Amino acid sequence: MERYIDPCAINGNIKAPASKSMTQRAIAAALLADGQSIIQNPSYCDDSLAAMSIAVGLGARVEPQVNELKINGSANLKEPKLNCGESGLAIRMFSPIAALYPVEITMIGANSLKKRPMFMIEEALNQLGVKCTSTNGFLPLTIQGPIEGGKCEIDGSVSSQLLTGLLMALPLASEDSEIKVNNLKSKPYIDMTIQILKSFGITIHNSDYNLFRIPGNQKYIPHNYIIEGDWSGGAFLLVAGAINGHITVQGLRNDSMQSDMAIIKALERAGAKMKLSENQIEISKSELKAFDFDASESPDLFPPLVSLASFCNGKSNIKGVSRLIFKESNRATTLKEEFGKMNIAITIKDDVMSVTGGQPKGAHVESHEDHRIAMAVAVASLGASGRVYIRDSQCVAKSYPGFFDDLRYIGAVIHE
Q1: Would you call 292 helix, strand, or coil by DSSP?
Q2: What is the pLDDT of residue 10?
Q3: DSSP secondary-structure letter at 262?
Q4: Would you say 335 and 373 are in contact if contact means Cβ atoms under 8 Å apart?
């Protein structure tokens, strides 16, 4: 679907979407608990729907309602082929969980997920005695458990999501386990995982993020879990306000473990006019200055940071480009290409992306079927000099299905 957006100021109060990454983790934990768990304020984005489908396939009874999700955990496998859609977290988190079952299970995916390498999952599970085979390093994966525990060593430089999956699965193994992790990035996401596991009665011992000890024979305890607002989606709303608005974003916890809460530091460095209070942020248009920011621990912030930098006076430098390769698109080259169409110059040298600010112009751009690219150009269009057409904008449903509706609610002029 092509949408086009006219430049306009936004104003009003808006609630941040629910966190999809926390929803997916809570679904996995509820699947593994013996009894009913209730997930309040869930995200029903495409990635969460994929997690729900996988949980059903692995034996859970899932009852989605408007503001809560009821899950009855079970280990009675119903479907030996599990579709992760386009969710990187789903394939990396549920593969170790699938290894708990003493039967062969096939993990498949769609579109961009088919292009993401799976060798890390294969290598880790093989180290733990599971027969796991990829298709030349890509999907589909076949997994034959059960996983019994033990020791493995993984690389955490590309993603922390496989570690999340191992931390979820290994407490149910018959033996104790140790995971050595080299060069772990996105540590806050592991904090989120451990926090949710603790809520469901699971103990993890973390030694400086490079050695994790997991006692075996643990049991997940059913739990009612409240999903907090999503800083990843909320970052786009905050940048929209800084670019051309006066808005209040509600539902973002100021004590959150989400790594993308770091958007506040970037906005402060850019001189954005903000007022922070408990669970809400008021932000207004102001003169913005160039900033330097290290997004290595929060790579999903690159798209909204590029939107922000496009309106800053001077050249902003964002570190962490190496974290962008294996996303829904190669976000480094995609951001450079699409913002280039809007007359914003982006250069990439080593691990740093430099963005020369100004005022984006109207243009025809493409999402590359990447939800965060679609949102980034949409936010930038609010302060552009002309209308911006966004091709394949429907991909925002992957993480934030109500994104364009929320922009309309605070005054954006969007045509489709």
Answers
A1: strand
A2: 98
A3: G
A4: yes
What's the pLDDT band for 327 if we cut at 50, 70, 90?
low
Question: Is 300 an annotated catalytic residue?
Answer: yes
Taking the C-alpha atoms of residue 197 and residue 202, their distance in angstroms, rounded to an integer, is: 5
Measured between alpha carbons, how far is 154 from 356 in angstroms, rounded to an integer? 37
Please report, in angstroms and rounded to a whole number, the separation of the first and last CA atoms in the chain.
8
- Tokens for 127, please give them: 């180290």
Q: Of 300, 351, 370, 392, which is the active-site residue?
A: 300
Q: Is 3 left (phi over 0), alpha (psi -120 to 50) or beta?
A: beta
Q: Which residues contact 380 (CB under 8 A, 6 or more apart)?
A: 243, 307, 310, 311, 339, 342, 344, 360, 388
pTM above 0.70, yes or no: yes
- pLDDT, one tens digit per residue, over 8-25 is 999 999 999 999 999 999
Structure tokens at 191: 């904090």
User: Which residue type, as a one-letter code, is found at position 348?
Assistant: I
- Tell me: the pLDDT tens digits for 379-390? 999 999 999 999
* C-beta contacts of 340-349 below 8 A and 24+ residues apart: 341/365, 342/310, 342/377, 342/380, 342/384, 342/388, 344/306, 344/310, 344/380, 346/306, 348/321
